[in-house]
Design goal:
heterodimer; A: about 650 residues; mainly alpha; two-stranded antiparallel sheet; about 0% strand; globular; B: about 200 residues; Four Helix Bundle (Hemerythrin (Met), subunit A); about 80% helix; elongated
Chain lengths: ~650, ~200
């Protein structure tokens, strides 16, 4: 046991030792604070076991911010290494590990949970529901994501990080990468993938079955629409990832021959399967982002979203096309000209529905009296920057031209223009926009705008030069270059931009603290003169049952229409007791067993893997036998509802 | 979440509560995800089935009569599972349990035959690590077999609950959902039988 820890704990790299120490200190401080203020019980009953979609959403967002920090530090380390030629700040192996974890964390443990968090907070409110369809599963989704993320993240202090890129191509990831690193990748993603799949199922059922009376599908707000479409993509894309990860896990642990070079295995099958999931995954993160921008732009333009129906149609078209373009990720890996042609055409076809959306947003802004709030500024910055990302995407989509661009910094710049301008800007916009829904006060606007300027200017300074670096031939994933290559000046500029983005992030985190201390509490549920139902609650932070009486919807902008009619915030309503689900501790325990199983498999400790799997099934059996007892739920009394509906009620 | 306890007695028992309706739709969507999962496994099998460097060929080791019996056993269990739901709709819990137990016995028989077949294959030199063909064969049939095993344990638990608590909207929903799962496994097996065994024995 001691030997095992000694073998795997990484102590030969000063940066990782520093990380070890800071993790240890943070854990000690957390335990001390929780014990000193006697908060353990509070943590367990109010947060860990909660089935309230709003709290689960907040936990998702906090985890995502932590992961953004981790992935951001990775990015800054890479930029530091690349600033000058022949740098020896990071070794080539360490650099490989860092670009791998940066990519994996940013997509799967930052972008996805951030968006899932916002969906959790907003969608049930937006459709006028009390909670999601399966509150128990929702809790399980979060914890399996969380423990999957932890499993992935401990790799860098214990055993070594994965080092084959976030795409993890075979045979490099099988024959070319011994040690537990790749196992961490495979099992971490597997465990968190369970949660994502369950969330997909949960939101489909919630949105199909639990909309408020009168809310036809065509009257549904755009963020809920994007969530619905995204959930469908999740349900059909994530099983592909599950199987693909399992196949490589078998290759590495049990000597099968799926992606190996020997005995008939086919490494190209990994590339195909990975991108069959991977390309829909891109739309899983970007469609909800489109939804957030649509809400923000409509609210601060004070207009109904222009072309609501065309937006829905383009969403559906994109979701279908997203499954038909995967080969464009490897045009240069031996596909025939005909195959490349077909996938060029499907790829460029995606530009059409995406272009429609751009015109939807521009049409909404046209002749509107725009309010330049921080959330709106993120949305406005998104449009031109995302167009750059989209147009360069079409350039890359042309197979013949791609032979020039592929695996250069041109590609890096392209997908950061789509993923940062599309997804990260949306996460920040949504975070600021729905902040009062989550915490009862707004984020400070001037500080938020400082963060915006640092981040967006930093972003463009960082990534515009990378297009040029790509044209100049700089390949991706190289840990250093030579002075003769002539890439130094642009790399210096790029690093300066990255620092700007880092400062922007720090300002956002500071703003959370500042706003907690100094922002005024909201007195109504309608912080921004909103249009959709999430703003129709009597208090800023909705009570756990969301709506005392289910709202009735008559228009696309349901709450706006109520305000026009004067039917919003009616007084003297007859309340009825509300039935709500119980909290649950089983998903947390089950996820710990997932983690144990995953860890056992990473290090091929078989008793531990079997223990973890048996424990997970034990939790499921327990659930099957006892759900009728624990799922009875309880009633919120009329007196309690009356008290909670007062704007200034005391927290229980 | 509201209306959980309001009953609509005009529809089958399992659909009478709001929770029941949500769970059944959710399970259908879960089965959609399972379709994607098994499709990927099929795709892997068909992409890799010519990856035969060494080791036996399917045509040398598959036994037509054996697999057709396996298939009939599993398909029969699907039929008896349907009969169990029929009896559940007639509110005849005894007959329902009898048919469920018969279903499980057929399921267990199938599982026994599959494991025996695996042992036979391993002795013939076709193991998980032999080549890409056999790796993907075992992954596809094995995943199906694990699903059957999980189904047997799950339905056993549900039988106990139905006997203990009687037919309520909650237990009826569980029986119904598990029968959907069982039919789905049959559906998957039809493709395995045709795509893997029958095509494997051609020429």
């Amino acid at each position: 046991m001691v030997e095992f820890i000694k073998d795997n704990l990484i102590l030969n790299d000063p940066m990782i030792v520093g990380a070890n120490i800071s993790i240890l200190l943070t854990v000690i401080v957390l335990v001390f604070v929780l014990t000193y203020f006697k908060k353990w019980k509070w943590l367990w009953t109010e947060w860990i076991t909660t089935v309230d979609h709003k709290r689960i959403g907040i936990m998702y967002i906090i985890s995502a911010l932590l992961m953004l920090f981790r992935g951001g530090v990775d990015a800054l380390l890479m930029r530091a290494q690349l600033t000058v030629p022949n740098a020896s700040f990071l070794s080539s192996q360490h650099y490989n590990e860092i670009f791998t974890t940066h990519g994996t964390i940013m997509i799967l443990f930052m972008a996805m949970p951030f968006l899932l968090g916002l969906m959790n907070v907003v969608v049930p409110l937006q459709i006028g529901a009390r909670d999601v369809a399966f509150p128990y599963l929702n809790n399980l989704s979060f914890w399996s994501f969380f423990f999957g993320a932890i499993l992935f993240n401990i790799s860098f202090v214990f055993g070594g990080s994965p080092d084959a890129g976030w795409t993890n191509y075979a045979p490099l990831a099988i024959e070319g990468s011994p040690g537990p690193g790749i196992n961490y990748y495979l099992l971490g993603l597997q465990v968190s993938g369970i949660g994502t799949l369950l969330t997909g199922i949960n939101f489909i059922v919630t949105i199909i079955k639990m909309r408020a009376p009168g809310m036809t599908l065509l009257r549904m707000p755009m963020f809920s629409w994007t969530t619905l479409i995204t959930s469908f993509i999740i349900v059909f894309a994530f099983p592909i990832l599950t199987v693909t990860l399992a196949m490589m896990t078998f290759d590495r642990l049990f000597g099968t021959h799926f992606f190996t070079l020997t005995a008939g295995g086919n490494p190209m099958l990994w590339a195909n399967f990975f991108w069959l999931w991977g390309h829909p995954e891109v739309y899983i993160v970007v469609l909800p982002a489109f939804g957030i921008f649509s809400e923000v732009i409509a609210t601060f333009s004070r207009k109904t979203l222009f072309g609501h129906k065309s937006m829905i149609i383009s969403l559906v078209v994109i979701s279908g096309l997203s499954f038909l373009v995967w080969v464009h990720h490897f045009y240069t890996m031996g596909g025939s000209a005909n195959v490349n042609n077909i996938f060029s055409i499907t790829t460029m076809a995606i530009a059409i529905p995406t272009g429609i959306k751009i015109f939807n947003w521009l049409g909404t802004l046209y002749k509107a009296r725009i309010q330049f709030t921080a959330a709106m500024m993120w949305a406005l910055a998104f449009i031109p920057t995302f167009v750059i990302g989209g147009v360069t995407g079409v350039m890359l989509g042309m197979a013949a031209a791609d032979f020039q661009y592929h695996n250069t910094y041109f590609l890096i710049a392209h997908f950061h223009y789509t993923l940062i301008a599309g997804v990260v800007f949306a996460c920040f916009a949504g975070f600021v926009y729905w902040y009062p829904k989550m915490f009862g006060h707004k984020m400070n606007e001037p500080i938020g705008k400082w963060a915006f300027w640092f981040f967006t200017i930093g972003f463009n300074v960082c990534f515009l030069p990378q297009f040029l670096l790509g044209f100049a031939g700089m390949p991706r994933r190289v840990y250093t270059y030579l002075p003769e290559d002539g890439w130094t000046a642009l790399n210096v500029v790029s690093t300066i931009g990255a620092v700007g983005m880092g400062i922007g992030f720090v300002i956002i985190v500071y703003n959370v603290y500042y706003s907690l201390r100094h922002s005024k509490m909201e007195t109504t549920g309608d912080s921004w003169n909103g249009r959709t139902l999430e703003w129709a609650t009597a208090t800023a932070v909705p009570p756990h049952y969301n709506f005392p009486v289910t709202p009735v919807v008559k228009d696309v902008d349901a709450f706006w229409q109520m305000k026009q009619e004067g039917t919003a915030n009616k007084k003297d309503i007859e309340y009825e007791p509300i039935h709500m689900p119980n909290n649950t501790g089983t998903p947390f325990v089950m996820s710990i067993f997932f983690f144990i199983a995953g860890f056992g498999l990473v290090f091929e400790i078989w008793w531990m893997a079997i223990l973890g799997i048996a424990g997970s099934f034990g939790c499921m059996i327990f659930r099957s036998l006892r759900s009728h007892v624990y799922d009875k739920g309880y009633y919120v009394s009329v007196e309690e509802i009356k008290r909670l509906e007062q704007p200034f009620h005391k927290e229980a | 979440m509201e209306n959980t306890n309001k009953l609509n007695t005009n529809v089958p028992l399992e659909y009478q509560t709001e929770t029941g309706k949500l769970n059944i739709l959710g399970f259908w969507i879960f089965l959609g995800a399972e379709v994607a999962l098994f499709s990927t496994l099929y795709a892997a099998y068909f992409a890799l089935k010519d990856g035969v460097m060494e080791g036996p060929l399917p045509i040398d080791v598959f036994d037509f009569n054996y697999t057709i019996i396996m298939t009939i056993v599993l398909l029969t269990s699907s039929f008896t599972s349907g009969l169990a739901i029929h009896e559940m709709r007639r509110n005849n819990i005894k007959a329902m349990v009898v048919w469920l137990v018969i279903t499980l016995l057929f399921g267990a028989g199938f599982l026994y035959m599959e494991i025996a077949e695996f042992i036979h294959l391993v002795h013939s030199g076709a193991t998980l690590g032999t080549n890409a063909l056999w790796s993907s064969f075992y992954l596809l049939t094995g995943t199906h077999g694990v699903h059957v095993a999980i189904g047997i344990v799950w339905i056993t638990l549900i039988i106990f609950q139905a006997l203990k608590r009687g037919l309520t909207p909650d237990t009826a929903k569980k029986v119904f959902v598990s029968s959907l799962y069982w039919h789905f496994l049959d559906f998957v097996w039809i493709f395995v039988f045709t795509g893997v065994y029958l095509l494997g024995m051609v020429k």
